[in-house]
């Protein structure tokens, strides 16, 4: 069986993230990376669009949740994005990493990763 792995790399969005007063009042940059696995044997054999997982649909859902959301914790933000990724029935594994640039004074970013597997 062909297992496809879709990578969405460095999706740059803005959201309310954090619990400090200034973080609650203005949007901050986040950088999102997705890894989504699904069986692609039918898509490989038939070249039919409806046999493939539409990453554009997933990405649009992620953009909507992130840009409209207010999150205290990276954990909640990442969990919401992960939920979008595995809500599609054909997905058997998903991993989401969100970076919060400039979260620490002397670091490029702070990131959190969560993954999910179909039981």
TrEMBL record:
<dbReference type="Pfam" id="PF02152">
    <property type="entry name" value="FolB"/>
</dbReference>
<dbReference type="InterPro" id="IPR043133">
    <property type="entry name" value="GTP-CH-I_C/QueF"/>
</dbReference>
<dbReference type="InterPro" id="IPR006157">
    <property type="entry name" value="FolB_dom"/>
</dbReference>
<dbReference type="GO" id="GO:0008719">
    <property type="term" value="F:dihydroneopterin triphosphate 2'-epimerase activity"/>
</dbReference>
<feature type="domain" description="Dihydroneopterin aldolase/epimerase">
    <location>
        <begin position="6"/>
        <end position="116"/>
    </location>
</feature>
<dbReference type="InterPro" id="IPR006156">
    <property type="entry name" value="Dihydroneopterin_aldolase"/>
</dbReference>
<keyword id="KW-0413">Isomerase</keyword>
<comment type="similarity">
    <text>Belongs to the DHNA family.</text>
</comment>
<protein>
    <recommendedName>
        <fullName>Dihydroneopterin triphosphate 2'-epimerase</fullName>
        <ecNumber>5.1.99.7</ecNumber>
    </recommendedName>
</protein>
């Amino acid at each position: 069986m062909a297992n496809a792995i879709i990578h969405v790399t460095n999706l740059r969005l803005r959201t309310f993230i954090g619990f400090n007063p200034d973080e609650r009042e203005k949007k901050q940059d986040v950088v999102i990376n997705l890894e989504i696995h699904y069986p692609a044997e039918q898509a490989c054999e038939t070249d039919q669009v409806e046999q493939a997982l539409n990453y554009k649909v997933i990405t649009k859902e992620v953009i909507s949740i992130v840009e409209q959301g207010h999150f205290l914790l990276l954990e909640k933000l990442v969990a919401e994005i992960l939920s979008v990724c595995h809500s599609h029935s054909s997905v058997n594994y998903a991993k989401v990493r969100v970076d919060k640039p400039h979260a620490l004074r002397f670091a490029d970013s702070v990131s959190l990763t969560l993954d999910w597997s179909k039981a």
